[in-house]
Automatic annotation (TrEMBL):
Phylogenetic placement of the source organism: Bacteria, Pseudomonadati, Pseudomonadota, Gammaproteobacteria, Alteromonadales
Biological process, per Gene Ontology: phosphorelay signal transduction system
Xref: Pfam families: Response_reg
Bilayer-spanning residue ranges: none
Protein name: Two-component system response regulator
4-aspartylphosphate: residues carrying this PTM: 60
Gene3D superfamilies associated with the record: 3.40.50.2300
Length: 127
């Protein structure tokens, strides 16, 4: 007879990216450690994060409409979502872009291309 060990539920990470392919790549790399869900825009991210708050958000910077910086600011200024750790993912690596991410309220800024192992460790340390 096996005994049930109290296991913490799998942390939920909301991936926000206008490119579905990026979500598929992240799912392949991270699904053994996290339960992932997808939002294709900043607007969708906001409604999804309020309706079902994730343990962390992976947020693409360059998106049409509401970009990652604006989405991050809105999340950090919304009572229901202000404490959710946000990792911004971007191909933009200048010091100004990095600073803009932290000014918007992100908890980490990861430049593409990135090591999936590094991203996995960063996420695990946040949730």
């Amino acid at each position: 007879m096996t005994t049930q060990t109290s296991k913490k539920p799998t942390p939920h990470v909301l991936v926000v990216d206008d490119e579905y392919f990026n979500f598929e790549m992240l799912t392949t790399a991270l699904s053994s450690s996290f339960e992932l869900s997808y939002a294709d825009s900043g607007e969708t991210c906001l409604s999804s994060a309020i309706a079902s708050p994730p343990d962390a958000i992976l947020l693409d910077v360059c998106m049409p409409g509401l970009d990652g910086y604006d989405t991050c600011r809105l999340l950090k200024n919304t009572p229901e979502t202000k404490d959710i750790p946000i990792v911004m993912l971007s191909g933009l690596e200048s010091q100004q872009e990095l600073q803009a991410g932290f000014d918007a309220g992100c908890d980490a800024y990861v430049v593409k291309p990135f090591s999936m192992q590094q991203l996995l460790e960063k996420l695990k340390s946040m949730v």
